[in-house]
Design brief:
390 residues, 13 helices
Amino acid sequence: MTGADIFDDLFVLELANNHLGKVERGLKIISAYAQVVRFNNVRAAIKLQIRDVDNFIHKDFRARTDVRYIKKTLDTQMSIEDYAKLVNAIRQASCISMATPFDERSVELCCELGIQILKIASSDLNDWVLIEKIAKANKPVIVSTGGSSLKDIDDMVRFFDNRHIPLAINHCVSLYPSEDNELEMNQIDFLRDRYPNHVIGFSTHEYHDWTASMLIAYAKGARTFERHIDIDDDGIRVSPYNSLPNQVDEWFKAYHKAKSMCGAPGTQRRLILPRELEYLDTLLRGVYVKRNLHEGHILTDNDVYLAIPLQKGQISCRELMRGEVLLRPLQQDEAIMIDDIDSPYASIPSLKAAIYARGIDRPANSQRPKGVRSEAAEFEYQLGLRKSET
């Protein structure tokens, strides 16, 4: 699975430099979330952040630890061997390996490590030196839109489309953490409408809830989802925008609920549930005759009336076509059965069987002409379970 279908119903769990650059801690996080992924039967990618730190920070500023981004980058620096251990652990956990490379050398490292999906951070959406390097890797790409301009997003989409590289587009608000009233989830609708040939996702940094936004995002058509992850069992403070295993478990369960509630894709008519059809059939009006009619009579509106209940084998308002020819005489107020008329419906075995399967049983004192099967026998006959009357 290497094309655009790799994005469908994909969860991205952002490891963010395995939190503080400690390999053992990163392995512990991967193990914890692999269990949650397996338990919830979802497809998940565990994502690393990769930087070539020695060249990413200008040598004249490496001592500026008062600059938060510089200090964080230095504190989480990792070797190639460290990254390789994490990627191997992700594979062994049956998750998809993914990374956000922040510089050109890191893109090369992603290729060396066999990373399956690359991510472009919202801050790099118009870093064309990096983007061109990522494109040369020829791997599926997810981009977070964040606070990018519409032109930048359009240019990005056009760039990858022209190179036939699978691209998923995540709605994202670049606030860490995000308040509920800052999520702007209607942007999912906007992105789906503007880029109909791409999977649209939702990358979130909220910290109040792990259910409501999932239900909304899935219903709006988002099909890839991203959160930052962490653990809270080693005394290290968890950032408020990170999710814990029990919260991601809740998130996954909300996804399954949303998928169940939404049903079929919005691009096609849903499959109607059998018990729904059965319920609707109980509300159908059956066709009854107003007066005695002889064999060979051609039915008109003046000959019939509609009423409930519908009986097994009786034609309903759905099948009444007008102009049917009676194959036997009928008495006033008698139900018109599918076998009583010369009708196209009677010549379609599957439809005829369905007509005998719906409605209520006929009254015990109902008279059926000789040679006409009972409802149960007719149903079995039409399904091929009965070859002759016994």
